[in-house]
Amino acid sequence: MVLARGTKLVVATHNPGKVVEINDLIRPFGLDAVSAGALGLPVPDETEATFAGNARLKAVAAASTAGLPALSDDSGIEVECLGGAPGVYSADWAGQTRDFALAMKKVADEVTRLQGWTVPGPRANFVSVLCLAVPGRPVQYFEGRVYGHLVWPPRGSKGFGYDAMFQPDGHTLTYGEMEPHAKHATSHRAIAFAKFVDACLRQS
Ligand code: IMP
Predict the structure, then answer these.
(1) Ligand 1 centroid – CA 91 distance (Å)
(2) What is the CATH code for 8-200?
């Protein structure tokens, strides 16, 4: 499915951090991006146990309500020694108020309880699964992962979510310390987005 320049595309997320990042990634391709929040679309319950399942839920809900192509992202952080937790439940670890200082502390406490905190910190990776839903077409998925390790205490106030406790391999800064363009050059979302571009935008 190729999306021509000028196509209206719903960015099917209510997460302000993701809206900014996805809009930055989409901008060069001339799509007319509008967020689910700006269209007043409801926030669907994320009831699936996989990133792909939740991404599909969000994209299909937005596409069918708006009658437009919709691109969603379901993502999270997986900590190796926690068996991949918090994973699909990354947002839930931040509680109702979406307090990510609290979520990061929960991750650090859980690691410390299990095995103590050594430097460098435990291996972890971010995952992003993008889902494109176009009314009347099969959905398409695009996945990206980035590997690194956790730091404690968190460093940097750029970015969002767990950015300040994640240092990608080959870098000395956390995502919380990097400028947005530096994060976009390496991130899980950018890797997934590049696959979406190859499949759906490059030819237009
Ligand atoms: P969901 O995809 O809406 O379920 O939310 C996933 C959660 O994972 C977000 O609320 C963030 O806390 C976290 N997350 C996903 N991507 C990133 C990222 O690029 N940086 C930091 N945290 C992220």
Answers:
(1) 6
(2) 3.90.950.10
